[in-house]
């Protein structure tokens, strides 16, 4: 019975004066790797290849914030406005990241993997597999996750992610099939529903070899700093218990500006 | 009444096909800045100086995980073991980051700021201010947050953070007063209670000019990837509803290893 | 666009000096109905029949607490031990009520409804439907939710719930099929896996006409007072950040006692 | 070290086939006590006196719901609209019950206890103590918690709670001092800020001998069924991800109706 309750973890080893994350001394990692590399190491068990790290940074930067109307932001602000401590406001926000918000990455990864498996199993071309996948979705009345956006006609984040993936040489079969799905969708519906940020992230995480259950983790990790900024702004700029209209807000932050000399090249070839 | 309910946000501006975080186009930031720089930008409104970014990376890497026994990990694993989706397990973990776990950074920042103000207001030397601060804490029976550790005699993360701060030239008054507090504590108690990771992070965030309410945010952001790794490990390696003994675990991950050629120098001078 | 965003709720009407829950003035309900009746009214839209209210009270009382080892209690205590405010500790507990803990009621209701539908659609007797349901579950390797218990051989709560339902005259088809499932299970496996509290509650909620999605709500509502008692006990009796062994606890509360003259008969016929 | 980690709980004893809540067999309690009595038993360790139970029922019924605009409801609906499971939506709601929403009960209890202690310590009359308490609050610019309401001029729940407490003979010093505070407030400000539901509950919980930390628990427990009703309504009536305007809603539930013959007298003398 006692034996039964001992267990093992493969993440971090703690000894007196020594902490090893996936085998590496954490004080040796500090100053040598970025937080993004540590995120990959914690979750995947190995350090990422340099291009993977660069692309993950881009994916995380893309997802930091999307303004004040996403439900995770509204839940975090609502909690903050009642006097919740920061961690509780964050938790309320994280609890609002589900199937319909953030979760599209997971569903989009499933769609992409299915189309890839179909191409493999049925010896179809990627184009055929995409055409059949869209047909099937339309027959069963399913919306294809990862395409179209409420606000954007061309999602600038999706475009930039694919551009970076090409330059870094990590765009693979998943990117190809995702583009084929976009084309098939346009041909069959006559409407241009472009790949959105969720679809682009799903394609890249697939090509980078991420397991599906970790896809939501990326979005959650990326969005926390945004939730923090909103919760703190709510507490410092607004009165408690105000009624938050999710649409009636304007932007009054720094005016449009360029990176210019602030640019810190992490990858000078891009 | 209607006017009343319009409001403003200074974080992100959303227009059709254009997303600007603190004034910068998000697709221009992608590929040019790291996630850590984006975290700073989202929370502080400006891009960090290069040394600040390097030090923040080190702070975040230091805090990613500390094994399987911290309460935030146990809460996340407990929730995951009942079948909770990943975001709910993360939320349960985040709700366990409070005054006694993670929160020491905030209290340590207050202590450091008080000692610095005391030195300024009373025209005391930093040493005098530290001596008086420790005396007062001992008289009122308060534990000094940021000193001593259950497991480590010398916290390797604290040592490394101060080393990096010195090399990067960002160690300032807060680092000095924190070291003076450590000395005063040893002189008055006869025991060596070294600066721990919380105390070191508090000193550096103070020298970097962070407001106190954001201190907890850093720890929470840093620890999420660790919580994710533990929740996923719980789900994939353990049976549901097992009774988790917080002490009876061993490490069976990758053996001790060095960065070696894997090292990715983000700052070649360090 | 504006019209689009107006919406309606059928739960509570608020006017100046007047609050109506499902049409009833709340101050008229106060002193006239119990909390349990108000729970039913809020969730189902009508006041319950007297027998329904009595049985719901018994279901809720049965589920208030089951000692210190369920995961919801451990998560709430873990959060409380880090200094979490009461609502955060409760939230951490509630997030640990899922498929494997509490959620058996929902799955058991589905099982019972399926068996009932089978009997109806295939014109089978309840006994045949139960036999076939168990066969199918065994063929596909599924555990039947609502039968067997880690600790109890005969779950005293299940036995009492069925006794009360019989006396109150509300035991119907769902109780019959649940008993048939218990028998079929014993015949086919040779083991006695008695109906547990989840199975009994599932049978009664089905006979009372509750929709499946509300079944989890009952368990969550019932368990909150238990979570509160444990979180407060953790804060007042234990030191912060202790490592909570889920098995190493003993009971030191009031000794075994009978209701005796304390009994407050809410239903003198039972 | 081992001894160190064993611990005790005074809430529930679990033996094979026997569950005792605070000493009472739970199957003996079922059918004999209401959920409200079990809530009191779990939290306070003893069964409540009959008048206490009746008054607690009234307090809980009063707090079940207050329409669709309180922040806890909006947070729960926001989470539910993203596809959150019921427990996560409830948790998001519970995390929005804090100082400014629900928490007024706790602060109001502190105010009432302070005024009572002042009367005792300074040998002042209750009227004098109330006058001085209000003066002090006004001097330091503090709002008195428990008085005034955004919507109601006379809070029908407060009026009814005091009426019930008088009839049941449990209104004591706390009710008297709360009324004295209301008078002192009107005399000193010239405005009528009537006792609201939070103030009335605070007065009654004080007279019933509840410790302050449990006050929030009552509100949280009472409000969960309301949160459940709203989360389910959001999921069943509204489309996912809609933008929830907290003011633009109307009521379309059952029309105004009286208890009439539906009334279930739990206390025929009232």
Commentary on this structure:
4 copies of one chain form a homotetramer. By secondary structure, chain A is mainly α. Chain A is built from 11 helices and 5 strands; from the N terminus they run ββββαααααααααααβ. Chain A has a 3-stranded antiparallel beta sheet with strand order 2-3-4. Chain A starts with 6 loop residues before the first strand and ends in a 19-residue tail after the last strand. Chains A and B meet through strand 1, strand 2, strand 3, strand 4 and helix 1 of A and strand 1, strand 2, strand 3, strand 4 and helix 1 of B. Strand 5 (249-251) of chain A pairs parallel with strand 1 of chain B.
What keyword list fits this structure?
homotetramer; 270 residues; mainly alpha; 3-stranded antiparallel β-sheet; 11 helices; 53% helix; disordered C terminus
Oligomer: homotetramer
Which of globular, elongated, flat, extended, rod-shaped describes the shape of chain A? globular
| Cα gyration radius of chain A (Å) | 21 Å
Average pLDDT value of chain A? 92
Biggest sheet record of chain A: 3 strands, antiparallel
Summarize the topology.
4 copies of one chain form a homotetramer.
Chain A: E1 7-9, E2 12-15, E3 18-21, E4 24-25, H1 26-29, H2 35-44, H3 50-63, H4 71-81, H5 86-94, H6 104-121, H7 126-139, H8 156-168, H9 173-189, H10 197-207, H11 215-237, E5 249-251
Antiparallel strand pairs in A: 2-3, 3-4
Question: What's a quick, concise take on this entry?
Answer:
Four copies of one chain form a homotetramer. Chain A is mainly alpha-helical and 270 residues long.
């Amino acid at each position: 019975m006692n034996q039964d309750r001992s267990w093992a973890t493969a993440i971090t080893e703690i000894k007196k004066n020594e902490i090893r994350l996936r085998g590496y001394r954490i004080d040796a990692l500090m100053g040598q790797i970025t937080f993004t590399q540590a995120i990959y190491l914690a979750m995947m068990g190995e350090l990422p290849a340099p291009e993977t790290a660069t692309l993950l940074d881009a994916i995380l930067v893309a997802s930091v914030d999307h303004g004040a109307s996403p439900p995770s932001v509204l839940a975090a602000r609502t909690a903050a406005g009642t006097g919740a401590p920061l961690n509780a406001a964050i938790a309320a926000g994280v609890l609002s990241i589900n199937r319909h918000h953030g979760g599209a990455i997971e569903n989009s990864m499933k769609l992409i993997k299915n189309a890839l498996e179909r191409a493999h199993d049925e010896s179809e071309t990627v184009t055929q597999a995409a055409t059949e996948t869209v047909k099937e979705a339309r027959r069963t009345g399913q919306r294809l996750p990862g395409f179209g956006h409420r606000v954007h006609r061309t999602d600038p984040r999706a475009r930039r992610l694919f551009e970076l993936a090409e330059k870094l040489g990590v765009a693979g079969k998943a990117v190809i099939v995702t583009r084929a799905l976009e084309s098939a969708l346009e041909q069959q519906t006559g409407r241009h529903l472009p790949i959105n940020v969720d679809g682009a992230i799903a394609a890249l995480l697939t090509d980078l070899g991420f397991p599906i259950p970790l896809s939501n983790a990326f979005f959650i990790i990326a969005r926390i700093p945004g939730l923090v900024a909103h919760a703190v702004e709510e507490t410092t700029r607004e009165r408690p218990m105000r009624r938050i209209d999710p649409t009636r807000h304007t932007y009054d932050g720094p005016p449009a500006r360029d990176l210019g000399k602030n640019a810190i090249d992490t990858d000078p070839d891009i």
